[in-house]
Amino acid sequence: MSGKPKIKKVVLAYSGGLDTSIILKWLQTEYGAEVVTFTADLGQGGEIAPAREKALLLGIKPENIFVEDVREEFVRDYVFPMFRANTVYEGQYLLGTSIARPLIAKKQIEIARKVGAEAVSHGATGKGNDQVRFELGYYALEPDITVIAPWREWDFKSREALIKFAEDHQIPIAKDKRGDAPFSVDANLLHSSSEGKVLEDPAVEAPEFVHMRTISPEDAPDKPQVFTMNFEQGDPVAIDGVKLSPAALLTKLNELGHDNGVGRLDLVENRFVGMKSRGVYETPGGTILLAAHRGIESITLDRGSMHTKDGLMPQYASLIYNGFWFSPEREMLQAAIDFSQKMVTGQVRVKLYKGNVTIIGRTSPYSLYDQDLVTFEEGAVAYDHRDAAGFIKLNALRLRVAAKRDARLRK
Question: Which is catalytic among the residues 15, 19, 71, 235?
Fold first, then answer.
């Protein structure tokens, strides 16, 4: 234990799975620390219930086990603000994993303060983005916190070595974990992410069994599904006229997307740590939400606001992907984005069909769409076609000047 800081108590982001269970025991044996576990219910599925029992089984005191349902907070305070910006990383990825990490980090720091822990720990590997996201969150909220990242510290060289450690310390191992898993999965209410093993070769199509959140578009119904979504100041609030909480609304969108094969993405992305990785993502509800939000913005935002937002979005997306949710620049961008959403209220009609999302109608009490201005029919129009001539000439002035210069140089 030479060289390791003296840690009395550490808060571990604990899933209840094999890796974080091994980390829990490793923290006890290597640091001699009292471990406090935090398990967040982000809508990932059925692993939450056993987490408390698993922690108890591994010797954690009941008062040191924290299991919290954070689905509403996750969607309301993280997912929806991100979607107000129409956030997409590298043109495709809806940031389902990235956006969950700052909330987990925030909760760990809150618990550390509550129980008097000097350290926090996570199960992210030394090759991925999540180690960065967790730790930037920790340090932004608690600058002097000690961070323990076992995957960067321990000497385990293989899955077999981890399994042996688990067996030596009576850590329960599911039978399918005794060999190499076919791929790794991270999931929450917004998405599922699958990486590794059978997915490592980007030239090979992902097998169908990888997909968990959607049916294949080929197997989706032959009849389109149409529904309405209402927005208030940029956030969705109702589906088919039924008001829903943020988490309930995203759950409903996930169901609609699942049934129609919406939201699959096979992506090779650039990780913040420098390497490329291939992942298969499923974001059914988020894919629908993005299209619907852009639909309502199309009639409620003026050109300048919309184009400015679109220009800011890639920077905003990179900040979230790279772990800077709690940075001042992300908060500055968020303030601008939120200001733009004051009039983004109204209803869109959405059609889903075999993996596709189409916006087929938009209405808003704040609509900027003026049918009198765009109509080709005769009528009282506040637009004189002749005005366009001067407009075009003024915009062409610099082009004409440059063209004349180039003509002189060619002589």
Answer: 19
Alpha helices in 322-386 (DSSP H): 328-340, 371-374
Measured in degrees and rounded to the nearest 5, phi and psi for residue 240 equal: 50, 40
Tell me the β-bridge partners of 21. none
Contact of 142 with 153, CB cutoff 8 Å: no
Does the annotation count 216 as an active-site position? no
Rounded-to-integer distance, Cα 6 and Cα 64, Å: 19
Question: What is each CA distance from 251 to 45, 160, 344, 346, in whole angstroms?
Answer: 12, 38, 22, 21
DSSP class of residue 132 equals H
* Tokens representing residue 357 in the block: 């999302």
> Which tokens belong to 239?
């589906």
Tell me the C-alpha distance between 256 and 362, whole Å. 19
Which residue in this structure is represented by tokens 């169908």?
Answer: 208
Active site residue 101: yes
DSSP bridge pairs for 187:
192
Out of 52, 71, 84, 101, the active site residue is: 101
Helical H segments across 192-302, by residue range: 246-259, 284-300
Instruction: Give the whole-angstrom CA distance, residue 365 versus residue 230.
Output: 12
User: Which of 130, 133, 193, 213 is labelled catalytic?
Assistant: 130
Q: What is the pLDDT of residues 37-57, one digit of tens each?
A: 999 999 997 667 788 999 999
Residue whose entry in the numeric block shows the structure tokens 């043109």? 91
Q: Are 372 and 353 in contact (CB under 8 A)?
A: no
Q: Which two tokens stand for residue 305?
A: 């606001």
Q: Report the distance separating Cα 239 and Cα 228, nearest Å.
A: 6
Residue type, 154: W
Rounded CA separation 195/183 (Å): 6
Q: What is the pLDDT of residues 324-379, one digit of tens each?
A: 999 999 999 999 999 999 999 999 999 999 999 999 999 999 999 987 777 766 65
Q: Which residues pair with 216 in a beta bridge?
A: none
Distance, in Å, from the CA atom of 370 to the CA atom of 379, rounded to the nearest integer, reads 13
Tell me if the pTM is above 0.90: yes
- CA 394 – CA 6 distance, rounded (Å): 71
Compare 177 and 127 and report the one with higher pLDDT: 127
Provide Rg for the chain, Cα atoms.
26
Catalytic residue among 76, 77, 159, 184: 184
Predicted confidence at residue 180, as pLDDT, reads 53
CB 247 within 8 A of CB 197: no
